[in-house]
Amino acid sequence: MLELSILGFLHETPLHGYELRKRVAALTGHIKPIAESTLYPAIKRLEKSGWLRRDQQPGAVAAPRHVLSLTDGGRAELMRRLAEPEPLDISNENRWFTVLAFLRHLADPAAQAVVLRRRLAFLEEPSSFFYADDRPVSAEEVDDPFRQGVLVIARATSRAELDWLRTTLAALDAAA
Amino acid sequence: MLELSILGFLHETPLHGYELRKRVAALTGHIKPIAESTLYPAIKRLEKSGWLRRDQQPGAVAAPRHVLSLTDGGRAELMRRLAEPEPLDISNENRWFTVLAFLRHLADPAAQAVVLRRRLAFLEEPSSFFYADDRPVSAEEVDDPFRQGVLVIARATSRAELDWLRTTLAALDAAA
DNA sequence: ACGTAGTACCTCGACACCGATGTATAGTTC
DNA sequence: GAACTATACATCGGTGTCGAGGTACTACGT
């Protein structure tokens, strides 16, 4: 997820680590902050895989900057990760939002539609947080007000997203 | 989050690891499955901290079961974790849902209200996924349809949850 | 002159998590 | 009779993440 953000941001424009950190923080930091000691090793990993290049530049105000940019391999890797997200990228809302944040880079409307359809299938699957006798329990059947809340909120999210998915898919299909 | 689920489920009734695993899977497994090799070490950790006790029992159909139950310390720890969730438990939806799933065990309506109010404060904070010139960008200003989706869905969720939080808080305040 | 905040990068130890693999029994399917 | 699924537990190596700490320079207030 962090790696996808890095690849996504660097696809838009070359950045140095410190600026990258601020962009990642703006994107998902309010939900889950990422530590510096997580970002820099992640950059090194991606560099080692040959997905990004590092160019030294004199520091504007402080230490010399390492301007990072995607290699051709890095661009291909980004496209691969966007076109074929892992199951967790589909089921976990935070990861899914990260995919969505960069999905426009996938350019091909048909390929974008494939990804949206995977999320659609996931949301259409009957699933819940609470079960009785292996059957999902609806909000109306729960007496615990907090568990009721979980179901009510999840349902509202699910409906809003299904709406959005269906209209966006219609537009993508029309474009393709 | 996993540890909270374990404490929460064991507060309801003693269980052996395998059954615990199924309950955890039912609660959050469709979003983020947890591996066996994560659960068993987690159980050991909690046991080592003195929060749960292990009683051997002949296996019903297979290997001998280890029936797990909360100690008094474990119950106290659960209450502490429910009453004073970490910041990430408040900001991350999956973690927050886990807190909600067991919040009824906190018994005291005033203490429950304190927790809900922390989530309320988090949701009322102006924050977004996308910024231009350090200002949050609204769905209407974005032209990327996928980023628009993120904002539309997040807004729908936020509204549903704010509604629910306010009515539930009113009920809790009336009860206290 | 001193402290603090911001820029810009880095290392290290600790630890949670995971996939792979192992052990053993019982019931079901082909 | 073999293969598979379910029950029930466990270990182990690899890896991602984090907090704490370190380095070094600039700018600003006092």
UniProtKB/TrEMBL annotation, chains A, B:
InterPro entries in the record: Metal_resp_DNA-bind_regulator, Tscrpt_reg_PadR_N, WH-like_DNA-bd_sf, WH_DNA-bd_sf
UniProt superkingdom: Bacteria
Record-annotated Transcription regulator PadR N-terminal domain positions: 6-78
Any Pfam family hit: PadR
Protein known as: Transcriptional regulator, PadR family
Organism: Actinacidiphila paucisporea
